[in-house]
Specification:
Elements: H1 2-19, E1 22-23, H2 25-32, H3 36-57, H4 59-70, H5 74-102, H6 104-122, H7 128-142, H8 145-153, H9 161-186, H10 192-198, H11 201-208, H12 217-222, H13 226-240, E2 248-249, H14 252-260, H15 274-278, H16 280-285, H17 287-291, H18 294-298, H19 304-331, H20 353-361, H21 364-374, H22 380-395, H23 404-432, H24 438-465, H25 469-488
Parallel strand pairs: 1-2
Helix pairs in contact: 2-13, 3-8, 3-9, 3-11, 4-5, 5-6, 5-7, 5-24, 6-7, 6-8, 6-10, 6-11, 8-23, 8-24, 9-20, 9-21, 9-23, 19-23, 19-24, 19-25, 21-23, 22-23, 22-25, 23-24, 24-25
Amino acid sequence: MGSMAMDGQQHEHEQMEGRNPKFTVDEALVAMGFGKFQYLVLAYAGMGWIAEAMEMMLLSFVGPAVQAEWGLSSHQESLITSVVFAGMLVGAYSWGIVSDKHGRRNGFLITAIVTCLAGFLSGFAPNYITLIVLRCLVGIGLGGGPVLSSWFLEFIPAPDRGTWMVVFSAFWTVGTILEASLAWLIMPTLGWRWLLALSSLPSFTLLLFYSFAPESPRYLCLNGRTTEALAVLGIVARLNRVDLPSGQLVTEHKLELNENFMPTEDTHLLSSDFEGNEAKVPKNVDSKTESASSLSMLLSPKLIRSTLLLWLVFFGNAFSYYGLVLLTTELTSRNSPCTPRALHSDKSQDTNPYRDVFIASFAEFPGLLLSAATVDRVGRKLSMSAMFFTCCIFLLPLVFHQSETLTTALLFGARICITGTFTIVYIYAPEIYPTSIRTTGVGVASAIGRIGGIVCPLVAVGLVHGCHQTASILLFEIVIFFSGIAVLFFPFETKGCELSDSVSEIKQSNAI
């Protein structure tokens, strides 16, 4: 009799499921496709990426100008750059935690305010100490960049995620070119103060259109705010001119629970009271997430392997990327005392640093195109590892002094590859973490990368200044090679996979 009752209950449940179909955020996004709504979100998030790129690029121009005007020592000049990276180290970790606990919108609102105000006021700094403090605050604000990338990622349908994240990354290159162009126009006439003030305008744009930016429906669902998530998805459907899937919006938590117990008449959820019930699901299922710190969750048995490998890759990427940007100037200098006399150009002409940086920035476009062509076809892991190893091949001849033309060509090819790996790792990182700690995970990894950015000029480029080019290039070779090896040991590929909402949903083993 008990068996017959259970069969009857199961049949009744199946009928109920048929009358009230359920769908997740991922299923809704796939059904509605990439349309006008996502283009608007891309434009908003892209403006934030442009803002970060411009603030980073201006470091190449402001330091020397301030040193000349205020008579600073070389140590004081380098500190202007170092404090920005130090601020980003703090901000990347802090804003990730804020956005995971209080929402993506709150996360990037605070970062935009800090970056905009501190960046604008930097142009009016009356002395060196004030400038250092303000630039450190700018760095803290810039540390929130991963929040915007995670926010945009959570609106993209799974099949298109790789390609559109590459498009998003292209805004960084746009920002570098805009800043080089602005410096080329502003610095010779108006000076560094105008450059600092005008470079804060993209951050101001984020504040201007903030009221139109929606919260991530994945974040809302995870926190039991299902009605609000459904409203956001309704806006997506309306702007994309498609219909929202019929039925109830549920999280993966709810679907897992449905598989593990037999519902009774009291447990059938109706749309009208779904929000109140849904709010309890994430807390019951993933209670450990709330009781443990975000950092301890990153190092939990299911995530520790991915986390440690990701930190190594972010460090190697930042070390290599900023190193190659600096080496482009160091190794192609006609007046370097370390370059053999036979390799010096006969034409001793002055070079325009703004023009050189402007031209060098275009090396990133082929890297973006290469990423777009491979990320969704070949996959994240294979694309990244292949580009790391190819970068090693481009750099290897530079162990010995080469002609200026060949050096430039080899560095151009290496920068294409490292731009590609940087682009793809910023796609892969948010995909391997669940919604509950996604921005924290990417933020901490980004912070580790900032350490690579701080160490690089002190170690690698310092060797070039000391006429130890071979040692410098070998150091880059080692860092890049082991970064490629680390990618191969990532536990799983994320191409085309749905995003997870909690640590409990991660099926693959990440244990060391």
